[in-house]
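Tutorial handout. Part one gives the primary structure; part two gives the three-dimensional structure as tokens.
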Amino acid sequence: MPSSCQAIQAGKGGINSGFVSRPVSRSAILTFMANEYAVAVQPLGVREVNTGAVLELLKRRRQTTRTELIRLSGLSKATVSVIVADLLERGLAQAAGRQQEGRGRSRVVLEFNPMARSVLGAQIADDVCVVVLTDLDGRPYQSTTRRLRGTAPEIVMDALIDGISELRHAAASAVLGLGVGTPGVVDRAGRHIRMAVSHGWRNVAVADLLEERLGLPVVVANRAKVAALGQLRRDQDDGPTDLIYVFLGKGVIAGLVIDGQLYFGRDGWAGDIGHLTVQPDGVLCGCGNRGCLYTVAGEQAILALARSHARHAGPSTVLHTLTEGRLAELTLPLLAEAAHRADGAALATLDEVGTCLGIVIANLVNVLNPDVVVLGGPSTCLGEPLVDVIRREMHRRALTEATHKLDVTISQAGDESGATGAAILWISRALAVSTPLRLLGDHRPQARHVERVR
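Part two.
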């Protein structure tokens, strides 16, 4: 979305941005960078770019007047008046009273209406998928959950579509698109899962599958990445702009927010910490390497390690008691309970897992110098006994200056944070490569009042 200084007006020499004047080919394909993605789109007209600039000002200021929009955008009074009338007609702007300045005429106060359209966000967790409906600010107002009966792509897609269908019927306004947080590494374009070792997926065309069945534009990203966006939105009042979100579950991966922007890297692989080497001669990983963090801190690896410690310690362990001797039935919640009871085998497991996680997080902290480190995902049910070890190891190995006032916390938002972040990603990408005129259609929606989820 162009900023206010990029609003343009047609001139004899081409298009004048206020800084440079250059001819523009109407048949050219423009490439926009949105959240580290490259997306090719058809060229935008002057009216579309100007509308986008005015809407961006309205979104950022929340309440303003036509006079302020003219001043900040650099556009003519006639141009801004036409754009504002158009935004009012489409429902994106609405009157919010009048403003009296001195003895002159009062001015109409305008405000952005985020409920003019809705966006869907979804998070595919290990055992469930969560779907939310958000407004154009990315604030959720409805949600639903579906339990997953398996990990095969077709099973997961069916459950996801069932939840999406429920919420589309409950939408307060027209639904524009869908963002999805998935396991594994997603390609830079946000279309395919290249590899998800935890689920045994390779080259799954998630966006294509969903678009064909839903008729909505879809963008896909790793679930830790979108959870980082959701966490940033949740904590925005506290002002963090640099955040590391570590997902712990069947897979281990990080979402990196740098200077308020989600970082994907050149091909979308940034944050794949599960395949960092922590034990050079360790267990063979599904990626082909040995000793990856995933082979120590993935859910199945944690449980396998706990069983090994319990067998070595003998039948008197709390783990044996909780499983009635059937260690094959051990779960993360049972392991957490054993650690809470100070079981030696359970604590030894969490010490080994937490040490490896702490080493990796310490390296990330030294490189990125974040405001906060947040842990999320199913394995965080292991709670403070695990987090304490991670903190200890991080502070032991990271630079003191980098860990000053830095803490490691467990996210309180759950899987809804990832679903919300997926919707936010869709909004940011869509508005970066298009404009309200293309996205929202030509008619004002007949919005229904829907009470927000608190």
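Part three, for discussion. The chain has a mean pLDDT of 83. The longest helix spans residues 344-368.
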